[in-house]
Specification:
By secondary structure, the protein is mostly helical. The protein folds into 2 domains: about 80 residues, no CATH class; about 160 residues, no CATH class. Helices cover about 85% and strands about 0% of the residues. It starts with a helix and ends with a helix. The relative contact order is 0.11. About 0% of the residues have low confidence.
Length: about 240
């Protein structure tokens, strides 16, 4: 009886946009339970684990990404409201932010410029193509913004999207450990560093540490996206004179 019921459910879902939504929610639910069971080990970040589960699911069922996204787009739509909701914990830290506006501004601008320049120079040193170098430049910005910037400056948006995810995973896994090694205890400082370097995935990790760290990480993520969009095209034009001419 149970097997027959499950078979009917699968037949219904496989022909419905609800399949993508259901698969996404189930994958994240399982990933989050695993994350909690592992004492919030950053190596088992639920976003990363859920993505891996969904990839395996689509490969095993031979479902195309297009068909999956017909339902998955409902979760994608919620990214906007979720990003706006980051303003709530940030508002709770507004008094501290008023005192720290200058160091926050300097940290974000420095992080954006140093991150982009170092990425380009390291790729150039190891012989990467110009397009690959340009694709690396916006890797620390949230994916939709990074892909737009990459396309504008001559990079490959699809490659940039992969690099953004990899950067976020590395930041989420190593960030808090690095802060501990450097004896950085202030959650506002840790949050700014995480948001500038590891965007959304890093911010999700920051919220598991504390609301304050998450709030400042969300702020840094938003400011760095804006600063990168404004500064990176100019910075690339300046570097082109030295590297590619």
């Amino acid at each position: 009886m149970l097997e027959a019921d499950l078979s009917r459910i699968w037949v219904y879902l496989s022909a419905s946009p609800l399949l993508g939504l259901t698969a996404t929610l189930v994958a994240y639910g399982l990933a989050h339970r695993l994350y909690i069971a592992a004492n919030s080990n950053p190596l088992l970040n639920p976003v990363v684990t859920a993505v891996a589960v969904l990839i395996l699911f689509l490969l095993a069922t031979d479902i195309s990404y297009k068909d999956y996204f017909e339902g998955g787009q409902f979760v994608h739509f919620l990214l906007g409201p979720a990003t706006v909701a980051l303003a709530i914990p940030l508002y709770q830290q507004v008094d501290k932010l008023k005192r720290l506006w200058l160091p926050v501004t300097v940290a974000v601008l420095s992080g954006v410029m140093i991150g982009a320049v170092s990425s380009i120079l390291i790729a150039w040193f190891f012989g990467a193509s110009e397009q690959t170098q340009l694709s690396l430049a916006p890797k620390s910005v949230t994916a939709p913004v990074a892909m737009g910037i990459s396309d504008q400056i001559g990079g490959l948006p699809s490659l940039t999207a992969v690099l953004v995810v990899v950067t976020g995973i590395i930041g989420a896994v190593l960030g808090t450990k690095l802060f501990d090694l450097m004896r950085i205890r202030d959650d506002s400082v840790r949050g700014i560093a995480m948001g500038v370097s590891a965007h959304g995935i890093g911010t999700a990790r920051a919220f598991t540490v504390s609301a304050q760290m998450g709030a400042f990480s969300g702020l840094a993520m938003a400011l760095s996206a804006f600063a990168t969009a404004v500064l990176l095209p100019w910075l690339v034009d300046w570097m082109a004179v030295w590297l590619w001419n």
